[in-house]
Sequence to fold (557 residues):
Amino acid sequence: MSGYATFSDSELISLLREGNEHAYTEIYKRYFNLIFIHAYKKLRDEDQAKDIVQELFVNLWEKRDKIPFVNNPAGYLITSVKNTILNFFEHQNVESKYIISLKEYANNGNIANTDYYLREKQLLLYIDLAINQLPNKMRKAFELSRKENLSNREIAKKLNTTESNVSKHIHGAVKILRAKLSMVFFATF
Amino acid sequence: MNAEEAKQLFIRYQGGECTEAEKALLEDWYFQYNEHEINITPERIEAIGKLIYKELPIVQPQKKINLWHGVAAIAAIMVLTIGSWYLIDRFALPSKQIIVQDVRPGGNKATLTLANGETLNLSSTKSGIIIEAEKLTYQDGTLIADYSRKNIKSAQQILSTPNGGQYQVILPDGTKVWLNAASTLTYPSSFTDANTRVVALTGEAYFEVAHHLTKPFIIKTNLQTVQVLGTHFNINSYNDNGTTITTLTEGSVSVTGLSDKAILKPGQQSLTTAKNIEVQNADLETDLAWKNGKIEFRDASIQSIMKQVSRWYDIDIAYQGELSNRVFNGSISRDSNLSVLLKILTYSDINFILSQDGHSRKKLIVKP
Fold:
């Protein structure tokens, strides 16, 4: 089962859509920290964050065949949790801190960009920042599991070497890292 | 805005009644809200992760899953115990499982035929070659052949990939070509003496044509001729279903068929048959996926997926029984073994039998 760590994000989504439980578990392992920390920041309450994140992942499984064909699961998951949290905010009373904060934000002359592509880019930047702010151990584990996302051809191009060198290095490195990782990350589940 | 209006904004967002500007404002507020440091420890987060995991609606991991319930072992199949850590890790097979040997994906394979008829097998550890009038090198600079002393005028060369092969070539004008599996590109070693730059293609290739003020770049295939001045596009002339598909990403090309002509704009593609040419919007992501190292299919029938599979994995396909007309969506790395792709399809009740005949030719039988 640990082998699913080598699948790219889009492979995992494809497998999840077809009902693969191992892929679902791998997605959970890969993204839980990022999504939980995001929810906790917004809600500042452990129980509320736990409920919302649990609901997100339950829905992810129950509606798995309806997941859109996305290239960016992080974006899809964050957008889903955003919608749930905004729905939660909507049910608060008028004196709640969220509503006051939104009022002040609007009154400070903040103008939002409605261009679709720019907004997509903004979301990706937000996610990149969130990944960088993860506690060290979590960030490293996350980045390692997504390393296979770049095709060997792209990596070779970036490093100015050949694909077969990249392939050899990655397979060698994954072997070593897998042993180390299993102590840090997989053992905790 | 007062507090009541702010609350209304939340409500209208949920009801889908906001303007684009209101939606964007709410979302921008959301993403910057409360972004300051959290005071919960990583250990506590992991603990909550485990708690939630126990409540998730799947069967917890110790269940044994028979991953090959769709595949039968028959006498002609080679049986191997898996030595490769790669395959074991991917599928966590129980140790006594008898399985069929997996099929490795294609790689950098090609042959080059020179004007004198000599054929060179190109290195599989390199990904491309550079053609110049005086010499032939790999893309990393390694020399293959040197003609500087021979005073040879422009000569015709053929780059050819087998099933399971792919290769890149940079032509004497700087045009870059990615050649897919089971394809050939015929071109001259120099364009200087001609008024046009002409090449011939069978199969599939992606072109980034170098700009030239006066010499159009012309690509001839079975059903059509494409003419460009400088641009990026893909030509699929495998003629699956008797159709050649040309997909344009940048620039402008004209496509001339046997009895019809069309001009493409970026994002469009032409479908050329012996009878006519149709132009439609392309799905750039899917049509160029092969060049970006992926096998991707969108709303594809099992037959069209199997055609791609047959060329990249170099196996024959046969069908048994009646398969449904359903379509599939998926995307995996081109470096994946065949089993990865088959696994995805098995979940949709398609079954496979992989066998090998006496001449080591692999065959995949597809059935419901």
About this structure: The longest strand of chain B covers residues 197-208. Chain B touches chain A through 76 residues (CB under 8 Å). Confidence is low (pLDDT under 50) at residues 62-100 of chain B.
